[in-house]
Amino acid sequence: MSFLRTILAAGLTISASAAAAQTAGPNDGRLLASNCMQCHATNGQPRPGFSSLAGKSASEITGEMLEMARMTPGKEPEKDLMAVHARAYTRAEIDLIAKYLASK
Amino acid sequence: MDRRQFIASLAAGSAMGLTGLMPAFGAAIVNVVVVGGGMAGTTAAKYLKLWGAASGLDVRVTLIDANAAYVSCILSNKVLTGETTLAALTYRYTKLAGLGVTVVQGQVAAVDKANRVVRLADGRTYPYARLILAPGIDFDYSALTIAARGLTADQALAAVPHAWKAGPQTTELRRQLVALTNGNRVVMTIPAAPYRCPPGPYERACAIAGWLKANRPKSKLIVLDANAKIIAEPVNFGKAFSETYRTIIEYYPGVTLKGVTWDSATPKLKTVSLLDAGGAAVTMPAEVVNLIPPQKAGRVAIDTLGPTGLSANGRWALVDEISYESKVFPGIHVIGDAINSKQPKAGHIGNQEAKICADAILRLESGRAPYAAPVTNSACFTPITPTTATWLTAVYRYQTDIDPATGQSLGTKSMQMVSGNPVGVASETPTGASGDNADAMKKWFASLMVDTFG
User: Fold this and answer.
1) I need a labelling partner for B194 at 20 to 30 A (CA). Which of A26, A58, B156, B315 fits?
2) The domain made up of B142-293 is a member of CATH 3.50.50.60
3) Element (H, E) at B13
4) Is the CB of A39 less than 8 angstroms away from the CB of B447?
């Protein structure tokens, strides 16, 4: 990312998103994805009642998270448990989570 | 490293090598002592070993708890109703030991902050580079008069059980419920927030009311809430109180509890004293009193950090939630129910606080800064009847504190709720109490305990 684009990104996104995107370290995705593990098991392996996160590609996981988080103007937002979770993450964080889980 | 240490590290290395967790030869040793083997402390110990293996550090973790095993508070209301047992909710530290955590059963006598050593009551000592305190809660009866003619103070307290730590008090409250005559009255009291498990007391009310409705249908459950309203899942619990348990529950918000008195010769003639929401003194009779008192951080946190490292009211540990390190005492981290926080005091989110603390310690000990914007999530399923449940969830993010009056930055950061409908209000299930949620609750609990103890 060029210096100019970095400045623009910092100016255009909320601070948390900018922080995640700019300073992404090797274990940032691991830490964010650890929020999934209470239900989806320590390494994302399948658990009764919860889909396996391991073995999926990053784009599949990102796609599912964005689908759950989707807000359609004029429609009541989804209120199920994962929708509430998915909407709390920035796009940069979802990408970090997906990249980490895809590596498992 | 002398010869004895070298041989010891070889032995440790060969044992750990079996599980693939052998640290790099010559890696810097980091001793972490975790005090408290509940949901937060156990998770911290586990993830320090899991993640420490790839950190380039030789992370040595000791977990100290007064008990040989952990009894889950989650689902323990179902022990009161006879649906499950304490034995079924008991978790051991076997898997943790398998990961290379040294598990110690013992009572912490003192933390020597200057020399960074934890000393146990039996004299054993454990030096640390980083100390994680996860002592949970203690109870504060100081504003209450609990007295019975013929009983010692401790006996009187035990006779009005909180059952807010799963164990003997849970068994005692169950015994008292079973001993009720149809038509007897049960009083339960809810302390002012913050306390362990925001939906817990309302779930407790549903558990007791459900059991009474099925077994002592002429009995009443009188719920005395120090809070101005139902503070968690107001829609779901409001419906449970006003519809499902309309004939059993009487709910009174805004109550100031004063005490409980009786004569040990007539234990089923207790008198509960309180100020009602309007400030008027009221007494009410009850055969069983489930008294959930005001709460504070567990003793080890109070003793180690007080008074400068505690909130102004002396109850909770002041930590920077980017790493959970004490704001006053470097090298001491506090996680779980004992901290001063906007995050709820509960096992599921305590598990996540622990992971953030473990990751921050590994980064700090590697000479790096903690992750700048940690996220935690809270999720909790609550039984409403033996066959139905609801859920509650919220997500928190480390971000700038804003003065609610002026809208200006306060220059500090803490974990703040970023989810909800609307944002800032924890989301409760829109489908209400259901069998599907009860089924999901069992799976959620099983998975949470695997991520913590497995």
Assistant:
1) B156
2) yes
3) helix B3-17
4) yes
Best CA proximity match to B347, nearest among B170, B168, B198, B204 = B198
**For residue A33, what is the nearest residue in chain B, using CA coordinates?**
B375
Task: State residue B57's pLDDT score.
Answer: 97
Helix (H, G, I), strand (E, B) or coil at B213: helix
The CATH code of domain B3-138+296-371 reads 3.50.50.60
- Angle formed at CA B193 by CA B190 and CA B196, multiple of 5 degrees: 80
CA A73 to chain centre: 22
Q: Is residue A6 part of a domain?
A: no
Dihedral angle at the C-alpha atoms of B77, B78, B79, B83, nearest 10 degrees?
A: 170
CA distance B172 to B184: 17
The answer to whether residue A1 sits within a structural domain is no
Q: Are B365 and B429 in contact (CB under 8 A)?
A: no
Give yes or no for residue B392 having a pLDDT over 60. yes
pLDDT at B291 over 60: yes
Domain span holding position A63? 26-102
Cα(B272)–Cα(B112) distance, integer angstroms: 43
Task: Round to whole Å and give the CA distance between B419 and B296.
Answer: 27
A→B contacts (Cβ < 8 Å), by residue, are: 15-16, 19-20, 23, 25, 27-28, 30-32, 34-35, 37-42, 47-50, 77, 79-81, 84-85, 87-89, 93
Report ipTM (2 d.p.).
Answer: 0.92
Please report how the helices B39-52 and B435-453 are oriented relative to each other, as an axis angle in degrees rounded to 10.
50
A60 lies in a domain? yes
Residues for chain A: how many in total? 104
Beta-carbon separation of A39 and B421 below 8 A: no
CATH code of the domain containing A35: 1.10.760.10
Structural domain tally of chain A? 1
pTM of full prediction above 0.90: yes
pLDDT (0 to 100) of residue B16: 42
Predicted pLDDT of residue B117: 98
Structure confidence at residue B421 (pLDDT): 63
Identify the residue whose tokens are 């988080």. Answer: A69
CATH 3.50.50.60 intervals, chain B: 3-138+296-371, 142-293
Give the residue ranges of chain A where pLDDT is below 50. Answer: 1-21
Structural domain includes residue A21: no
Q: How far is CA B274 from CA B189, B225, B230, B268, B431, in A?
A: 10, 11, 19, 19, 36
Q: Do B393 and A40 lie within an 8 Å CB cutoff?
A: no
